[in-house]
Amino acid sequence: MQELPFIKLSDLTRKVQQAISGMFAGQTYWIVADVTNYSRYEHKGYHYFDLVEKQEQSSAIVAKVAAVAWGQGAERIREFEFVTGQQFKNDIHILAKVSVTYHAVYGLQITLLDIDTSFTIGLLEQQKQQTLLQLLRDCPDFIQKSGNQYITRNNQLTLNPVIQRIAVVTSANSAGYQDFKHTLDTNRFGYQFIIDNYFTVVQGETKAELVQQRLVDIFKANVPYDAVVIIRGGGAQTDFLIFDTYTFGKVVAKFPIPIITGIGHQKNETIVDMMAHSPTKTPTKAAEFIISHNKEFEEAVIDEQQRILIKSQQLFSIHFQALSALNTGIINNARTLLAQHKEAVIHYNQVTVNTTRSILFNQHRDLMALSNQVLSKPRILVSNKLNDLDNMLANIRSFSRIRIQRERSYVGHYETVFRLMSPANILKRGFALVYVDDKIISDPTSIKTGKDIKVLLTDMEINATVKSKNKADGTAFDL
């Protein structure tokens, strides 16, 4: 048997390694790919994963290669997670700097050297702009755009002059919440606040529905809150992905209570910030905004008080001068009038004295004449009046007998009628009385089907229950 020429596998892998090294030695490449099959060995600082490229229409894999990161690459992954807030994991889209190597045992391998964080942040910004366009398209009734500003139903609400009762949506263990509450509690103006906490998770894109539900809880609580405050601590940009979701932005834009945000970012606005009534950078800033708002109202009240005081003093001064002038004029005019009418008063006084004397003399004379008449006529008048009284007494006696007889006749008639109309006689003639709840019922419409009734006959009481009611035609008593 002829012996075939062969080489060792190690010789072949050495040739492959030499060829690849000759082609890729010292070369690095920036590539765009998706991460799959990711695993991490934290204690060693090793990261193993596959980099794949997919077709845009079908998502079918068109290229796949094993990749690894350690040392510098592992450090860049930590920086990527810190800056973007995005965990390095499966199905993320990255722009990475890689080198190509070949190992006789481990085969072809891509080594990750660096990651472009701005590429990932750019993708997030693109998603954010797409979400904003969708909100404008789907919700024209309560979201519009004017220039670079978004006009929403929420940011068009008017804040109450004083913000005192507040609903706070935050994490129970958030340091930002502690800062917010400490700032309110220690405000130097001594303002008091009523805070109702609605704790939930405020980090992670998938937790948006939990925050949304807390807003629904606030709405259903039917408490007259002056404002709703959404706060959380600081973090990297993608820590705020929850605040860039479509559903969360829509709920905030439509919410009927003014929303103040303080979600701990210093640079970019989130969609929730754009939709809310009053966005601030941090929880502390949110608290300071509320205190400042209340201080403006207090200052406005103090200014109005000062204006009222000054105006009152001015009016008092003006009217005091006018009152003094009027008082002086009254005194002077009174003196003048008294001087002018003094002689007239003396004249009228003399006329009054003389006229009074004449009237008294005439009245005295008439009184004497009347006295003489009174003395001569009393007997005649008394005799005439006695005759009149005798005649009146006779008439009264005669008319009294006739009236008494007539009234007795009336009383006898009414007594007969009352006896005929008494309940006892009516019951004897076959009629009955119907009671409901111990009350006589005359209106049948007030008796409901199924109601207990009492029927009273001449010598019997019947208890019954109404089973049905039928309309009578009214002919039962026709004669």
Automatic annotation (TrEMBL):
Keywords: Cytoplasm, Exonuclease, Hydrolase, Nuclease
Domain OB-fold nucleic acid binding: 8-115
Entry-linked Pfam families: Exonuc_VII_L (PF02601), tRNA_anti_2 (PF13742)
Annotated Exonuclease VII large subunit C-terminal domain residues: 151-464
Subcellular location: Cytoplasm
EC top class named in words: hydrolase
Membrane-spanning ranges: none
Catalytic activity of the protein: Exonucleolytic cleavage in either 5'- to 3'- or 3'- to 5'-direction to yield nucleoside 5'-phosphates
PANTHER family with a match to the protein in the record: EXODEOXYRIBONUCLEASE 7 LARGE SUBUNIT (PTHR30008)
Family membership: Belongs to the XseA family.
The protein's name: Exodeoxyribonuclease 7 large subunit
GO molecular function annotations of the record: exodeoxyribonuclease VII activity
Broad class of where this protein is predominantly found: cytoplasm
Enzyme Commission identifier(s): 3.1.11.6
InterPro entries per record: Exonuc_VII_L (IPR003753), Exonuc_VII_lsu_C (IPR020579), OB-fold_nuc-bd_dom (IPR025824)
